[in-house]
Amino acid sequence: MSTAVESKRLTVVTHPLVQHKLGYLREKDTPTVHFRKLANEITLLLTYEATKDLPTEDFEIDTPLEKMTAQRLTGKKVAVCPVLRAGVGMLDGVLSLVSSARVGFIGMYRDEETLQPVQYYSKLPTDLRDRDAIVLDPMLATGHSSAAAIDEVKEAGAQTVTLVCIVAAPPGIDFIHEKHPDVHIVCAAVDRGLNERGFIVPGLGDAGDRLYGTK
Description:
Number of helices: 6
Largest sheet: 9 strands, mixed
Structural class: alpha/beta
Helix content: 25-40%
CATH architecture: 3-Layer(aba) Sandwich
Oligomer: single chain
Order of helices and strands: EEHHEEEHEEEEEHEEHEEEEH
């Protein structure tokens, strides 16, 4: 039985564990310590889906009993690029599966009047041209911040880009696919839409504030 709803450029992970943890993540009374733990656990499961097409090759090993042909990754290099600050709350979930990945950081904040992203920081791996990038942004709302982060990663030379988010809204998905039709989005849910402030509804609130206990 499939645990993901997938199209060419969008995968919604419907695995029961993901949906179970997402329900607790959305709950307004979930404390910061549990919110942070759940965000990492969900990201780990989303990463499992986001990396399922990494190429492998045969290699010979000795088990305690006999020789056998096993599988290993073909040396594909990965860079993980969280969008500050909330994307950092997803970073450990990726690195727990792809421990050799290089990490870059892109600082963005949203102007609350225009809803447009403002970039204030960028520090990316110098060998990004040799890597496939995974951009982390927990909430894909209007899509403007994620698109700007993807712009930055592509300009630095990333071979391919996958966007991993926890909750997405249709306007954000449409915007990413318009600006970056080659980018594959992996998320845990596609919610109803956006409110007048540009927040995802029903959503889970401000992910950064809930991750770090700020207001």
